[in-house]
Amino acid sequence: MRQIRAAVRFNFLGFFRSSRTVIVFLLSAIVCYLLSGRVYEVVAHFGTPTQAAEPFIWTFGDTQAVLLVSLLLIFLFSDLPKLSSFTPFYLVRMTRRKWLVAQCVYVVLVTALYVAFVLAVTIVLCMKNSFPGDLWSETAAILGYSKTGQELHVPSTVKVMESIRPYGCMMQVGVLMFGYSLTLGFLVLLGNLLPGRKYGMLLALGYSLYGFLLEPEVIGKLLGYEEYQLYQIRSLVGWISPLNNAVYGMHDFGYDNLPTVAQSILIFTGILAVQIASSGRAARRYNFTFLGTE
Question: Across all residues in the chain, what is the average pLDDT?
């Protein structure tokens, strides 16, 4: 464990001073600001406050928002696995398996930090008109019990408010986003461990495109389905699309043929298990190349 911790600490050397890190976190803050614009419109329109967790829940209540903020992680992880002139020093003192575990721990910690940053940004952006109590706001009630939420594309629904409190909902939204973002990060790692070290970003972009294309509305238009027929498509897509599994509103609340939040977490766990096992196989055949010293 000491060797793994040392390798993880080494991976974080210069992380917060890296231009790549600064650019990604700045862009994520800009994306959060743009995506939460509809929340500002709601608050300004009704003149009522929101609960502190509601901006995060509403901002990332659809697939497009989750996809946009997660795509930035592909750029952040594009340099995986972390290699430098000190890597041979670690490799002669630990096995490849331990080295790979250190890479995986690095991905988990960076992804958790990124999701926490996104959560903090959305809370800070709306904190002037929010309150900390763990109760749904009057704004949420107005949006949930009327068609205003659908017209403004704010995912505040009665079934959510009746099943869970705001902070609990915030935690589940964060966990689902973390699970999806983690699969993206491990996919980049796996692709870069394959011969050629060129496939990480391609695999992650293809994975994102797969989720984007599996939109019920898009599939319905392609198949010529009417609005009332989209229920079957939503039920199917809710199970087979990792991106839809990352959206809280695409889950079963007692009367939908959709996965529960726990089942989505199990789906992400299964995907991650396959990715880690495949990465372990690829790491055994990975050819380290070091040219000179820094």
Answer: 84
